[in-house]
Amino acid sequence: MDVAERIRDLREQVRYHDYRYYVLDDPVISDGAYDTLYRELLELEAEHPELVSPDSPTQRVRGQVRDEFRTVRHPRPMLSLGNAFNPEELRGWRDRAARLLPGDARDLAYVVEPKIDGLSVILHYQDGAFTLGATRGNGVQGEDITANLRTVRWVPLHGPAFTPPPAPPLEGGGEEPSPSRGGATDVSPPEAGATDVSP
Catalytic annotation on 157? Predict the structure, then answer.
């Protein structure tokens, strides 16, 4: 298989897995296996820029907004975390982060925690009351899942009791942690939390 064929094959695989993950909430490969495919595609396109096409999965924001939910636009983009797969990439991240800090703050200590996968959501509060909950979607717009989130016990329906009225608008983002569904331990779907909030 030549490079152009491999790139076409990788694009088809990535599109298929994006659809299973973002639209169907039913991934069939692990996050690590997906990241390996996506990274190979990125690397081949970087080595052969003449083969990059505008419809490549690497050229667009991943994720789609599903039709069964009302679409809402985020006040500011919900960005996604990047990956580091080896010590060299981790050091590269550290060096980039350190360049953003003043010189006297570059001696950093780190806290490492397990990554928690789940459904990324943003919660909006107006005058202390929960008014809107949305998925990350494609980072620019997401799905309005307010009614569903009102049934999730960990979502506060009111802001802190100590905030005097009128409370300022408040936005909070996070992930609804969730185990792999169906007992499949090799699949770690970040959108498996949608089982609590999807129709």
Answer: no
Task: Using a cut of 0.70, tell me whether the model's pTM lies above it.
Answer: no
Q: Specify whether the CB–CB gap between 187 and 28 falls below 8 A.
A: yes
Close Cβ partners of 76 (under 8 Å, ≥ 6 residues apart): none
User: Which parts of the chain sit beneath pLDDT 70?
Assistant: 23, 60-67, 80-81, 106, 115-117, 153, 159-166, 176-199
DSSP code per residue over 79-131? -------SHHHHHHHHHHHHHTS-GGG-S----------EEEEEEEEETTEEE
Q: What is the DSSP letter of 23?
A: I
Active-site residue (options: 15, 115, 150, 158):
115
Q: What is the pLDDT of residue 176?
A: 67
